[in-house]
Design a protein that fits this description.
Radius of gyration: 16 Å
CATH class: Alpha Beta
Number of domains: 1
Number of helices: 4
Number of strands: 7
Strand content: 25-35%
CATH superfamily: HUPs
CATH topology: Rossmann fold
Largest sheet: 5 strands, parallel
Shape: globular
């Protein structure tokens, strides 16, 4: 039998951390794997006046994203406990909403925070949360934290 899977979108905000804490607690109850998914956007740099811009996936960028993801995981585990929960770490180049929807295919749950790092502080729902709410291939949990000024 395949183990259940909970996919959580993490981009470094307090909202994502709250979603991950919730997912760890839920995974302990459901005996599920938690797949932590972080999307990053490719960086483009000028190549030459004639060539325009070319993608640059610097080793440092990937290491930075991986480090950030690890810090959020460690911080959430410290609060939630449940060291027995199996964690799968996924870093993917691409748009956050598209990446999460692909990762959530065949998942039991998709979990995100109500807001992320971008957007306006007064919004109740971020653009990624809103987008995946309309297209999620599995049940979606959007964690509202009540954080006002969290980055």
């Amino acid at each position: 039998m395949t183990k259940r899977r909970i996919v959580v979108g993490v981009e470094g905000s307090g909202y994502a951390r709250a979603a991950l804490i919730w997912a760890f607690e839920e995974a302990a109850l459901r005996d599920s794997i938690v797949e932590v998914v972080t999307a990053y956007a490719p960086t483009y740099v000028p190549a030459a006046p004639d060539l325009g811009y070319v993608p640059l996936d610097s080793y440092d960028l990937i290491n930075e994203v991986e480090r950030m993801q690890g810090e959020v995981i460690d911080s959430a585990l410290e609060v939630a406990g449940h060291p027995e929960v199996e964690i799968v770490r996924t870093l993917t180049k691409g748009r956050a909403a598209d990446t999460l929807l692909r990762a959530a295919k065949d998942a039991d749950l998709l979990v995100v925070g109500n807001r992320g790092r971008g957007g306006f502080a007064g919004l109740r729902l971020g653009s990624v949360s809103q987008s995946i709410a309309h297209h999620s291939p599995c049940p979606l949990v959007i964690i509202h934290t009540g954080l006002d000024n969290e980055d």
